[in-house]
Amino acid sequence: ASAGSWWRQAVVYQIYPRSFADANADGLGDLRGILSHVDYLAELGIDAVWLSPFYPSALADGGYDVADYRDVDPRLGTLDDFDDLVTALHTRGLRIVVDIVPNHTSDLHPWFREALAGGRGSGARDRYIFREGTGPDGSEPPTDWQSFFGGSAWERVEDGQWYLHNFAVEQPDLNWSHPQVRADFLATLRFWSDRGVDGFRIDVAHMLTKDLGDPLPTWAELQARPIDGSHPMIDRDDVHDVYAEWRSVFDSYDPPRTAVAEAWVHPSRVPLYARPESLGQSFNFDLLLAEFDAGQFRTVVTDNLELATRSGSSSTWVLSNHDVVRHPTRYGLPARTSTAQTPALEWLRSGGIEPALDRDRGLRRARAASLLVLALPGSTYLYQGEELGLHEVAEIPDEVRQDPAYVRTKGAQIGRDGCRVPLPWSAHAPAFGFGAGGAHLPQPDWYAACAVDVESADPGSTLSMYRRALALRHQLQTKEQLTWIETGRPDVLHFERANGWHVLTTFGTDPYPFPGSALLVSSSPFAGDVVPGETTVWFRRGALPSSQ
Ligand code: TEU
């Protein structure tokens, strides 16, 4: 791919820095920990690394509460460490993407402290969204709006005013009508671009601009408003004015810096974010909600390839990230008619007991799904640990849970910590090789079997499968299209990429006669004449071209 379009079919590996590797033995992952594993990343065969936030933060939301957008959290390292990491990645041909969190700052950000110190009527409050309360003495919140993490979306400050926070209390929403807010994020994009960053992942990209109205609508009124570009808070058309300014920064670099939107919007509005004049690419989260089912996968693939074509972008694929239950666990729980997340959340709430998890089956299906996704046109975002086949960790005592998010159903508090447990690098080292200072979330005993050193030595491991698939993907990478081949079986998908690279997945338990002549890689042990159930195979038909 040419330098400017490297992202179109890239495999991007998401690192959650606090849980990847800890070099300074304080129990928290850090930049030098990542640096110590760049060869691992290069050998895995990915194209780019995306770092979740590593900026100074009180960790009220795992770093998505940023106190300074242009520095490194001292517990994670220094700007010099960051520069070393960029160099180490670039030397190995890997790109680096960093996370930008523009909807809200941390309440420790200098702007918010200034806003608090300035008091009522202070201009410093205009960078955020302050309002008077209601009720006789203003002691009731301005509205009954709910935050995503539960509870009121408004918090009262000492002098009696209230500020808006769509996420945690420690994450005040910014006012994107303010020129200084706009200018400062342009400076942040330039700061990291100047340090050699290749692209940006934009957090909550669909919520920056707001036009809340006066009087403010009620929660019910807000919910009833159509999300058609004119909603007071969500997916407004004018957010793309912001991204047009960002685009001119991205395009002022050679090669142009890239961006991917984390935008939870209706599929019909995804292309607005993915347009080249906006952010250029947008996450497709459909697979997070799909069950392990041929029909659902085919619909997701077809729809998203079409959406990407319509926007002039390439499609993206995500099976896991730091916000959701890991996919081997989702696939190992009983299917439901609603979404695949439903039983996973029940399972988490019960501490990993109900409903019963079939770990082997979940892993078998996860490997099949991953191998299918790695063969699709477009770019794939992997989440650290999925290459090891890690399950969600359910056995985390409530008192050590860190995540402010919770599922409100039945009032039980369940965070996202179970996919953020520090990685196992070595079966026998302290904290499974994460670091000599222990791990900031407890690692389960079953981690030993999934450690990098154990899986590296086993040709049948999930890690070995990812390595083989990623190496092949580089050789076989081809046009951004696929052709479905009808199998006559509703539980079996088969497609061909443009150069004779075939991919077949059996979603059910029944085997399927192997239709190829040369197997390239299989997600399950493969006997030769039949593809087992719940398995993906890559193969060629006829003789392999000599160029391979
Ligand atoms: O997530 C945005 C978001 O909408 C989340 O609430 C998401 O729906 C939820 O986590 C799914 O379980 C981003 C980040 O990815 C997340 O980690 C942050 O907590 C959030 O923004 C606030 O910055």
How is this structure best described in words?
This protein is α/β, with parallel strands linked by helices and 548 residues long. The chain contains 15 helices and 17 strands. The strands form four sheets. It has a seven-stranded parallel sheet with strand order 8-7-3-2-1-10-9. Strands 11-12-13-17-15 form a five-stranded antiparallel sheet. A three-stranded antiparallel sheet has the order 4-6-5, with no helix packed on it. A hairpin with a 3-residue loop joins strand 12 and strand 13. Helix 5 (179-194) runs parallel beside helix 7 (239-250). The radius of gyration is 23 Å and the shape is globular. The two termini are 18 Å apart. Residues 61, 64, 101, 148, 167, 203-204, 262, 264, 322-324, 405 line the site of 1-O-alpha-D-glucopyranosyl-D-fructose. 1-O-alpha-D-glucopyranosyl-D-fructose (TEU) is lined by residues 61, 64, 101, 148, 167, 203-204, 262, 264, 322-324, 405.
Unreliable segments of 5+ consecutive residues: none
Largest sheet: 7 strands, parallel
Structural class call reads: alpha/beta
> How many beta-strand segments?
17
Count of separate DSSP helical elements: 15
State the oligomer: single chain
User: What do the pLDDT scores average to?
Assistant: 95
Helix content: 25-40%
User: Termini, distance in Å?
Assistant: 18 Å
Bin the strand percentage.
5-15%
**CA radius of gyration:** 23 Å
The ligands found in this model are: 1-O-alpha-D-glucopyranosyl-D-fructose
Categorize the overall geometry: globular
The strand order across the widest sheet is: 8-7-3-2-1-10-9
